[in-house]
Amino acid sequence: MSIWGKIGGAAAGMLVGGPIGAALGVVAGHYLFDRMAEADGGDPGVAFTIAMIALAAKMAKADGVVTEEEIAAFDRIFQVPPEQQGVVRRFFDLARQDTAGYDSYAAQIARLYAGQPAVLEDILDGLFEIAAADGVMHPDEEAFLERVADIFGFSPGEFRRIRASHFPADAADPYVVLGVGYDASSDEIKRTYYRLVRENHPDSLIARGVPEEFVKIATDKLAAINVAYEKIQYERGVN
Questions:
Q1: Model-level pTM?
Q2: Residue 65 contacts by C-beta under 8 Å, 6 or more apart in sequence?
Q3: Residues ≥6 apart with Cβ < 8 Å to 96
């Protein structure tokens, strides 16, 4: 069964049989995520995608209104097969009713992927794509993302690095793109660069069980990382 088939079946069962409404965060956060993490041999792609749908919905609501651009961004990232669109969209619509409980979602996801910061960064990348859909970052969206990043264990510097790959104004500074200080040694910059290349290589994403829809995001991010590293090397006169 495809990943969407697994998600659709699990979500449909939850939506039909469970008291969701205001308790959606608790039900999804503690029942569905745990169930999906254990199902089908612990398929990481299922848990990842469920996590993204839930947080993407609440991300879209962070500034008080869900725009057509944000919905389009969700549809672009998650190219749901027609037969699964109904239940996936219903799950999205329920989760986006308000932002209540988003920190519980984030905390559960952080536990699911403890020791796997690359996967947590993939999730943040998807959320930034939703936030950037209308071309601006609303203060409430930024606060939402900063809080999620903090729950995931990312430092303020790492948050700025991830943000830079989605907003051109930030991407102008190569040190921000790599998440290193201006006084970082050449060895530290090189180690950081190679780590980021490994984490964002398409093969690495596939190995992590990330849905194929996220490969393009990682490819664009990898291109920015390469440009930033080359710029720093040039500025420092390093061959």
A1: 0.71
A2: none
A3: 57, 58, 60, 61, 66
> Quick check: helix, strand or coil at residue 129?
helix
pLDDT tens digits, 87-139: 777 777 777 776 667 787 788 788 878 888 988 998 898 888 888 877 777 88
Domain that holds residue 191: 166-239
Do residue 197 and residue 149 come from a single domain?
no
CATH number at residue 204: 1.10.287
Number of domains in the chain: 2
Give 173's contacts (C-beta < 8 A, 6+ positions apart): 164
> Burial of 152 by CB count in 10 Å (0-12 exposed, 13-18 middle, 19+ buried)?
buried
Domain boundary pick from 154, 181, 203 = 154
